Amino acid sequence: MIRTAILISGGGSNMVRLAESMTGDHPARPVLVMSNRPDAGGLFKARDMGIETAVVDHKEFEDRAAFETKLHEALLAANPDVICLAGFMRVLTAEFVQKWQGRMLNIHPSLLPKYKGLHTHKRAIEAGDTQAGVTVHMVTPALDDGPILGQARVPIHAGDTPDDLAARVLTAEHSLYPAVFRRFAEQLK
Ligand code: GRF
Questions:
Q1: How far is the centre of ligand 1, averaged over its atoms, from the C-alpha of 85 (Å)?
Q2: Is residue 106 within 8 Å of 59, Cβ to Cβ?
Q3: Per-residue DSSP letters for 22-85?
Q4: What is the tens place of the pLDDT at every residue in 13-40?
Q5: Which of 108, 121, 137, 174 is catalytic?
Q6: Could you tell me which residues come within 8 angstroms of residue 31 by beta carbon, excluding any fewer than 6 positions away?
Q7: pLDDT value at residue 2
């Protein structure tokens, strides 16, 4: 069984899709859902699904290194084989990433390498793009830069607001992440 930790900061809709997909003959199971925000809606959803949860509130630490030391400790306690970042909004340092490199995935709401960072939908619309999308990639020290494992495209319609586009991309995220993660987990078996 491939022990999987899922890191979130918000509502956790991707976390729910990932966790729901890890059943039956799926080689992985969720062993921890952890957040840097104690009020993250996804924590309540994970508890309702019977998944262990933990909080490491970044606001309680004087700096990123102290926060990441605690984050790493909490992860080691769950002993995951793989980490899925699912709407986890803290930028991780190279030092932290190197400890989990090759077994940490992230989902990013753009067609990388375009629009690394934030406000991806607003930037795609302002650039006059006709397509947007989502990328699942391996996490490496450079932000949103790791090897791409899968992508899905969605159209940008005339008059789309960033929220319209975000909703359309989120739907694509919900099918892409479980599919890509299953493939990744299968090759770890
Ligand atoms: C998603 O759009 C994800 O791509 C981005 O943050 C959002 C998280 O949504 N990184 P949720 O918390 O999974 O609903």
A1: 9
A2: no
A3: S-TT-SEEEEEEEES-TT-HHHHHHHHTT--EEE--GGGSSSHHHHHHHHHHHHHHH--SEEEE
A4: 999 999 999 999 999 999 999 999 999 9
A5: 108
A6: 3, 4, 5, 51, 52, 78, 79, 80
A7: 98
Q: Are 52 and 77 in contact (CB under 8 A)?
A: no
Considering only CA atoms, which residue is closest to atom 10 of ligand 1? 87
**Has residue 160 got a pLDDT over 90?**
yes
Q: Are 54 and 74 in contact (CB under 8 A)?
A: yes
Q: Which residue puts its alpha carbon closest to atom 5 of ligand 1?
A: 87
**How many residues belong to the chain?**
189
Task: Look at residue 132 and tell me whether its pLDDT is greater than 90.
Answer: yes
The β-bridge partners of 8 are: 35
Count the neighbouring beta carbons within 10 Å of the beta carbon of residue 161.
11
Q: Closest Cα to residue 84, out of 12, 19, 4?
A: 4
Pocket lined around ligand 1, Cβ cut-off 6 Å: 8, 10-15, 42, 86-87, 107-109, 170, 173
Task: Mark whether 157 is an active-site residue.
Answer: no
156 CA to centre of ligand 1 in angstroms: 19
Task: Report the mean per-residue pLDDT for the chain.
Answer: 98
CA distance 187 to 177: 16
The single residue listed with the structure tokens 């933990």 is: 54
